[in-house]
């Protein structure tokens, strides 16, 4: 049986309206345009795409209907970063001794690939003002030119770097960058916080703080840098002068319990272990202190009046904290283990598996930010691994599949089978209303232009309006 669809294809910047029929993974189309051979990429107007990396291969998946097209890459992707300004996709492989950085156009054409000779640490940052990719490793911090992959700057440190943070801060003429690094000895006996206030001037040296306590987390607003150091919350001005420090004996000393720092409405919110603190950013004055039912392992972006956190105890639960009153409401996930989670508008969406079940089944559950009420639940036959979103949809990737859902009600918009487990999933944003994609081959067969995609089955495609 043949299925037919129509969409507008741009080849060599010239538009063609094509009618496509599909059967057994092959797409045929009639066109009034010329015969085409060996065209390796094309442009499709007004469609968003996802970059999907699995254990086996990388793919471009159309967000509107799940059409999957192989991404021409020989890099095992462990992290992907899309930069809309450059219309580029950057990827990093975290190899043991020689991590690879790679850059592609959004149609899959490779721009550059760099063998770094280093064991790079996630995350990977793009720094706009110097047009550079930034990553840390044990030797220090490195910047690579985003245009060609050449090494721009190497910032060596006395101790091995194990974490970096990057902040874009608004200024009267745009913004400036603040780059922070934590370097420490083995077992964290001595730690240093290094802060670079300028990445454009090589002569500007970082200011630093040395401590015998572990530096757990860092955050920044327009005028101050905040950090949790041991059992203290500290604030410094841009020159490194201490603004205030607050000791909190109830903070856990073990670095295995993560610390979350968030800034909102002039307050610093600290979540670590069983404790959530709200401090005034300017003075460090305590606004409220809340004890949770377990250890806070994740904090979602703060709405104007609520903070939502994922809490781990004997069972996992979600905590809904009223920021004006300091009241915490806890909703249990009922013995299910979260694999991924995301905030969409005033919802928190969690991918869970049953802790007492040996099958690969999993579910998406969605709760309201303000009430903690369960809004909907959707079951899957395979394990979910990754989530991402756009303005109207959420995308769920798992073992052998990717699906798009309506976050308001949980209905499945489309479902596409893939090979391998989804490891990386990100939206490739549009540029001027046009999205690029790659195809395996375009040619001419008995007067019909045909397009062939190398995958097992095409999803059902909806005709364009």
From TrEMBL:
Domain Pyrrolo-quinoline quinone repeat, residue spans: 265-378
InterPro entries xrefs: PQQ_rpt_dom, Quinoprotein_ADH-like_sf, WD40/YVTN_repeat-like_dom_sf
SUPFAM superfamilies in the record: Quinoprotein alcohol dehydrogenase-like (SSF50998)
Top-level division of the source organism's lineage: Eukaryota
Name of this protein: Pyrrolo-quinoline quinone repeat domain-containing protein
Gene3D superfamilies: YVTN repeat-like/Quinoprotein amine dehydrogenase
